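SEQUENCE AND FOLD
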Amino acid sequence: MKVVLFCGGLGMRMRDGVSTAPKPMAMVGERPLLWHVMRYYAHFGHTDFVLCLGYGASAVKDFFLHYDETRSNDFVIENGTHDVKLFSTDISDWRITLVDTGLHSQIGERLRRVRRFVDGETMFMANYADVLTNAPLPEMITRFEASNALACLLAVPPQSSHHVVDIGEDGLITQVTPMRDLRQWENGGYFLLRPAIFDHLSEGEDLVEDVLMRRLVPQSQVLAYPYKGYWSPADTVKERAQLEEMYQRGTCPWMIWDRERSGMGTSADSTVHAEIQLGPSRLSRDLRAEQMKKYSTARIRLMTGMFTFMCMLTALTSLR
């Protein structure tokens, strides 16, 4: 099945004042976000990609034109540096179509401009190219195939760490609820679409607000796949830094193609599996708490040692 990836947005919330690359090209470990999303689809056998380019298109093109397999695969060097033999490859069986879809185009317009590449398909997938998950894609596809809907999206709990407060008429708080525990769901950015979607998409429109929300939802034509497992956005520099932190720790639940990093290869390790269900914000808080605990323990030991030393020094002085 073909996969359409939207990689032409400015991503202003990701601006760090240095990089000029589009948001999906922000690095997580040795590879950009876009690569991680593509590896997710490739893991399930979907390797025919259509990239909707816009801002920073040259960064995406250069990445694939000069792709270095040795960065993420083991290899042998023979005859000096002349012969490199890879034990495995990432993208050798991928088909990647790169299309300029405009500098300031809405998501729906970007999709409309690549219609010719997916028109003959029974269905196809689409993605914002900057959100990571370990959701069971085959199950999501099966549910969509069994429905009459024109679109399906991954629905995830609200990711905010804030709390909702209920206030009584007397001004007293009656209930405090974490955002994640609300009954509402967020659009997770993973879509399944049928080509008939283009019959409802006009020039310059947005996919979600114009097509799904205003036209297809009232017609009961949009299916949701609710998922409470791992899902993480990368909308801000902070969120990207949290993903990098997880990568450096070796706890990457979205990397389902890597059994060790995803935790899938160590089923007996309950800690890793518990972390897979947590978002990066929670993981980051837990890591800081662990570090503070270690720091406090070390400080107590140091203070105790200094006190013992002072007592011994005082005793020796009194003997003199």
Notes: The longest helix spans residues 280-319.
